[in-house]
Structures are given as C-alpha cells and as structure tokens.
Amino acid sequence: MSEENTIETMQHEGRTFDPPKGVQQNAYVASMADYEALYARADQDPEGFWAERSRELLHWDKPFTKVLEADMTTPCIKWFGDGKLNVSANCLDRHLTDGRRNKAAIIWQGEPEDDVKVFTYQMLYTEVCRCANLLRKLGVGRGDRVALYLPMIPELAIAMLACTRIGATHSIVFAGFSAVSLQNRIDDCQAKVLLTADAVLRGGRAIPLKGNVDEALKTCPSVEQCVVVKRAGIDIRMVEGRDIWWHEAMAAEDISGECPYEKMDAEDPLFILYTSGSTGKPKGVVHTTGGYLTYAAHTTQWVFDVKDDDVYMCTADVGWITGHSYIVYGPLALGATSIMFEGVPSFPKPDRFWKIVEKFKVNIFYTAPTAIRALMREGTDWPKKHDLTSLRILGSVGEPINPEAWMWYYENVGGKRTPIVDTWWQTETGGIMISALPGATPLKPGSATRPLPGVAAAIVRADGSDAGPDEGGHLVVKKPWPGMLRGVFGDPERYRKTYFDRFPGMYEAGDGARVDKDGYFWIMGRLDDVINVSGHRLGTAEIESALVAHPSVAEAAVVGMPHHIKGQGIYAYVTLKSGIEESDGLRKELVGHVRKEIGPIATPEVIQFTDGLPKTRSGKIMRRILRKIAEGQIEDFGDTSTLADPTVITSLVEGKKDLL
Ligand code: WT7
C-alpha cells in the first residue's frame, strides 16, 4: 500500500484515542464535561474568564481594573489596559521566594553531548540582571529595540529576559537567516543594539555567523553596538568601537545581580517577530506584555498539563514563535523546568532526541511533524534503544500531522501511553488556539481537535457566513484573546488589511479548515501564497523577488509542492533573460543565490526553466496551474479559457517531464 493510501484510510477510519487514566486523574482539565463547561463559561463571560486566569497566573505590580477594550474593525485591542507588570519579574523574581529558587529553570543541552548547563531560577535571575545592567550601560532603555541573532545557547534566553526587564523590545532573528534577511529586519525595527555569536554549532560543524552580521550592519546605521558571544571560538573580525565580547562585558557586571525592573504597562510592546506574508517583505508581528504573558502561561499550563516536578522539552528554535512562547516565556512564567537544545534531531545519530529524553527523564515533549517524519524513516530501532517511559504527554506543531506520522509518534515514542496534543496556532496568535487538552479530549489522528476555552474559532464561507459541518472554509476567530498580535510594526494599515479586512469583526488566520460533526477542526493549509516548509512559513513573493534579483533571471514564479519530509517544498519556475543558456550549473547557482538571499530554509527543491509562465490576458500569473504541475497532476487543468497563451501549458508539462 502506498503512503498516500495509508493516510487516506486512516483519515476515514475515524479512530479515536481516549485520554489515559493516569494523565486524566490529575490534569488541570480532567474531562470533556469540564472542557465543555469551561468553554461555555469563557464564551459567556470572556472578560471574567481571562481576568481570573491572568490574576491566578501572573504577578501584577499594579492590578488591572479594566479587562478588555476591543474593536476588531479598526482594529484596536487592549487587554488588562491599566495594569502594570514586568515579564522578567514574572519569569524569575517571584520564583526566588515561592520555593523554586534552586529549581532548574533551564537545562541546556549543547550540541556536543557533554555540553550541558543547568540554570536554577536563582542563577538565571543573576545572569539576566547582569545582562540587563549591561544593556542599560549600552544606552538601551524602555521602548528601544534590541535585535538578537543567536544560536540556541543560554545567552539567547538571558538576553530576551534582560530586554523585558528594562522594557526594551526584542526582535529575534533566527540564526539560519541570511545577512540580507537580518539586515531587512534590523532596518525595519531600527534596533539600537545587536547581540550575536561567532558561530552556530550544528551537525558537528561550526557555521560562521558573525560574517553575516558584518555584512548586514554595513547598511544598518541604527545599530550602535554589537555584543558577540564566543560559542565556537572561530576567528572573527571585531569592529573597533562597535563590537564587544559578551564574556568581557558581562565580567564587568556585578555578580550580586541586582537590576530594578521597569513596571511596564500591560500594552507596552514586549517583542517583535518577523513572519512571512503573501506579499512584500516579512511583517513585524508585535506582541505586548500583559496579554501575551497571560496567554503563554495559560496555554502552557493547560495544553501541556505542566506540573511542578515535570521536565518539559520543546525542540523548536527560540528564533521562531514556538520557542518564544513554549521554551522561554510560558514555562518560566509557570516556574517550570524547560530544556533548551542546541543541536539537530539526526546528529550524531537519529536518536538524539530520545537520548535527551532518557538522560533528563523528560515528561512532556513537543516537536514538529517534519522532525517525526524524518526520524520515522530511520526506523523504530532508534527510539527502542532508549527508555522513554518518563514521557507523559507528546505535542506537535507547525503543520497538519499526517495520521501515519501521528501513529508512529504515538506507538514508538509514546509507547501507546501518552496523548498527543496537535496544536494549531500562528506567530500572530501568540500561543496555542486549537488543541486537545491531554486529560480531557479524545484524539483523532490528524485533527487539532477543539478550540481552547476562550477561543472563538470558526469556519466561514467567502461571504463570512458560518460554514456547515465538514464544509471547508476560512478559519477565523470571532472574539479577541489575550495573546493576539497588536500590530504590524510600523504599518497599521497592513495590520488591518491582512487580518481584519476580509471578514469584518473577525480575525482571519489565512488557513483553510473544516469542522466535523463532533466539532473537531481539520486544518487544510494556507489559502494565501504562503508555503509551509518544515513547519516554517515562507512567502512565495519573497522567494520570487530573491530569484529575480539574480542577473540571469527575467521572471520567476514560486509554488509549494508536496514533500515527504518537509511537508511542502519550494518549486520555482524561472524564465531566463534572453541570451542566457539553461544549464545545471545555473540551476545550482540560483539555488545558492536564494539560500544566500533568504537563508537555507528557503532552498528550492526544484527549479524548472521555462520560456513563459501561464498568464491571463491582464498579465496575472495563474498559480493554480503551476501548483498542479508541481504536484505532478498534469491531466486536468480546469478552466484555462482566460489564459493569454494556452500553449504555455504544454511546454510547461514537457519541461516538467524533462526534469524527471
Ligand atoms: C501556520 C503558522 C505556530 C508555531 C509554528 C508555526 C500552520 C501551525 C499547525 C497545526 C496544521 C498548522 C498553519 C498556520 N500550522 N500549526 N498543528 N496543524 N497547521 O508558526 O510560522 O506563524 O505558521 O502554520 O498553516 O497558519 P507560523
């Protein structure tokens, strides 16, 4: 039976998996009846529900009296508007006196197996205070932006928390992004200081990082100082007057570690994180202080059912929203123990995750379908080699998990004892929106199950009316929630247009989905020109503009193609300038060019040279056709009557055959 067939059969089989008794017994939400009651309560009285959660989970320096002021049309959203709090005080200071002072806050597993560091809450507090004092000395204050371009090392978490302590807004740029991407992001948010490292350790190699910084900073006048962490000890250039070493600067800071924190307004910006859209440059999603932290803590507690003696591990990179919310802010706000892992799943062997689970007796493990599919290919011997019985809850995020990968994860990692929470959310939502609750929700492999209490998720038709059971439509959220984005940095109009324009009064996610007769959500993927490569969002427009920036390229069109591990891969159609010869050498050069412009995550899978693209008479590229060809469906192209030149299709199909 082919892989597709297996997936198909399972989707229609409709198997469900009830929560195991052991998980159910002590869970925060311990039955479907509890879930339904909480959902109804939050629906009837959202302000009461969220105010209660926030007061229970966070320390407010000045308690809020207003809960929500929202207008989803303008849009203008304020949660806990007149309250004051500080994120680092919530993640650190209060745990110094609540019995957790000596508890591991972060267990850092470096890429080399023996490279392990444990930071207790006391130790992390001290380091954060020192770093915060250092940033203040460098002239960073409330409201300033700080860019972080760092590998998965403790300094990244320390720097984030240090920013929050002094009220600076951090903007993390994933260390896999190129110099050009870094430059765009720094320039957009006008960061004053940049923190980086000499190199990234990955797959047994040191990949230089500082060179990208030097290149990017050539055209980033806003950056006054650059602090460099020595991670690999490779040779780098330090620019006099601009670059300083982290270890030298930190050594000058008092080890008694005191740094009074700023009492921030609930709606003060906490961080900016860039994410791809269907058009133009990546947008800087803005999250604010009180609502985001409430939401991160709340979802971490309920979805992962984190208990005080649990060891919790999320394998994401802190450069993405998953790492922000579920490695750093959510777990630390709860006073939990969070593992931060620097390496990759397959190095030195495909049992790296399982080794870490065994070594630290991990109880809760959260990863992405792409990682599971990659490890699945390596066979069941790798997980079998390790004692994984400490695991109680598994999680998945980033894209729909195909039932085959779900079953493999469930059987071989969870030993059929652990629920899998498939969590749907986005950079913009700040935290998990649709997910099973491990002690309550019966699971259906491939479905993210039900919206969390307080999340008014729904499926609507193109005209905004509610879709019926099993009818595919647009995924929207009809009421505000505390973790929602508050803006696109520097571009209020883009904020409004992207999320609140098409369906008045609702948040538009950009995903297609359907809800089955049991109220379970099945996410079908993006409806816009965004593709999801290994759980990371990439705009086709961004890749196209990278391609046309190459001197040999006249025109480019990019679509997603199915990929057995990455979920989707990048398929690029390229028209060369006249006089330029097609060749494999040029193909390689173009692949390298896109990697350099955006980063290795944007590596095109296929580049097909073509003399023309399918366009309508008004010049619009018909992507529907390009998608079909990329998927290998070359029979039925539907209505092609609006094409300016229908013969283009034949030559595209011929060109595709030549590629195979
Ligand atoms: C897009 C958001 C949320 C952190 C990681 C990605 C897709 C995410 C799921 C899931 C189906 C999912 C959606 C969404 N997505 N999780 N569990 N099931 N699809 O964050 O880069 O902002 O991407 O990822 O298409 O819109 P992001």
From TrEMBL:
Residues 542-620 form the AMP-binding enzyme C-terminal domain. The keyword Nucleotide-binding applies. Residues 1-22 are annotated as: Disordered. The modification N6-acetyllysine is found at residue 620. It comes from the Bacteria. GO terms for cellular component: cytosol. Mg(2+) binds at residues 548, 550, 553. Residues 100-487 form the AMP-dependent synthetase/ligase domain. Signal peptide: none annotated. InterPro entries: Ac_CoA_lig, ACAS_N, AMP-bd_C, AMP-bd_C_sf, AMP-binding_CS, AMP-dep_synth/lig_dom, ANL_N_sf. Its cofactor is Mg(2+). NCBIfam families: Ac_CoA_lig_AcsA, PRK00174.1. PANTHER family: ACETYL-COENZYME A SYNTHETASE, ACETYL-COENZYME A SYNTHETASE 1. Belongs to the ATP-dependent AMP-binding enzyme family. Catalyzes the conversion of acetate into acetyl-CoA (AcCoA), an essential intermediate at the junction of anabolic and catabolic pathways. AcsA undergoes a two-step reaction. In the first half reaction, AcsA combines acetate with ATP to form acetyl-adenylate (AcAMP) intermediate. In the second half reaction, it can then transfer the acetyl group from AcAMP to the sulfhydryl group of CoA, forming the product AcCoA. This is Acetyl-coenzyme A synthetase.
